[in-house]
């Protein structure tokens, strides 16, 4: 197994928990892209949970002040999880719940996806947890993130069920389709964002602000980086520039002819220096090809194209890091949501 080594680096140097913002419970937290945006806006991430042990290890390194639990929420169930969360909260206090249940069952790139995919029950579990929390705490808002495909006709029953559950919880919701590119991320990444509030006034005031600054192209984002290290089976890789600046050894003959990439194949999609990246969402052998055509992107380059700060670090094997960076919510988009929610709560 290939592993990278390096130092734990906090996701943000802000002081969490300042002011009277609701404390955050993060479900299906992954590496913490959504959490990073809320912490940057001074929310305190009090509890996080994810099934993936590598993502949990990353989260613990990046958010040392947060209690992060590794657990399968399907096996654990809402009631048991809420008992664990209760160890970190005071009954009656205000909280917000954020998260993006795994989306593979809804993804349009999964051509074999079906409405009865077991993973499609995870949004309902997410809201069951919110319901359990609402019995003891004041849930002021939730943020739910997923792929655009969740709104497709074949998933209509699941999507309408989400909206119905929100209504039963007494939460007022808005469904947005947002492209991370419009929020300062050098990547086109369209996602469904459901924001729901206890206050209807807050809902009306919720308006995520587009970001006109920031890197817009691949060149601006990764154009001046040194060459990465290459991953080899059974070898421990150490890159002095950044622990995640590593990628697969280029073996395909295509890498000897950089002009041969047609971009018709998902497995060999070459990036354009002067355009934003397409969606950072890879299978193990589908990492985008670097604009020079000689290799695939490094994990670190993918992190930067997701909008993560330069000091952020993923842990685990190469495959584990591919999964974490692919599943993450871009931090600048998360920050825009956090800021918009804080402004909405201020007028409620």
What does this structure look like?
This protein is α/β, with parallel strands linked by helices. It folds into 2 domains: 10-211 and 329-347, 3-Layer(aba) Sandwich (Rossmann fold), CATH 3.40.50; 218-327, DNA Methylase, subunit A, domain 2 (DNA Methylase, Chain A, domain 2, Alpha-Beta Complex). 29% of the residues lie in helices and 16% in strands. It has helices spanning 33-40, 53-62, 73-85, 122-134, 156-168, 200-205, 218-222, 299-305, 318-327, 331-347; strands at 3-4, 23-27, 45-50, 67-70, 94-99, 138-147, 172-179, 190-197, 229-231, 236-237, 246-248. It has a 7-stranded mixed sheet with strand order 4-3-2-5-6-8-7, sandwiched between helices. Helix 4 links the parallel strand 5 and strand 6. Helix 1 packs across helix 10 (331-347), helix 3 (73-85) packs parallel to helix 4 and helix 4 (122-134) packs parallel to helix 5.
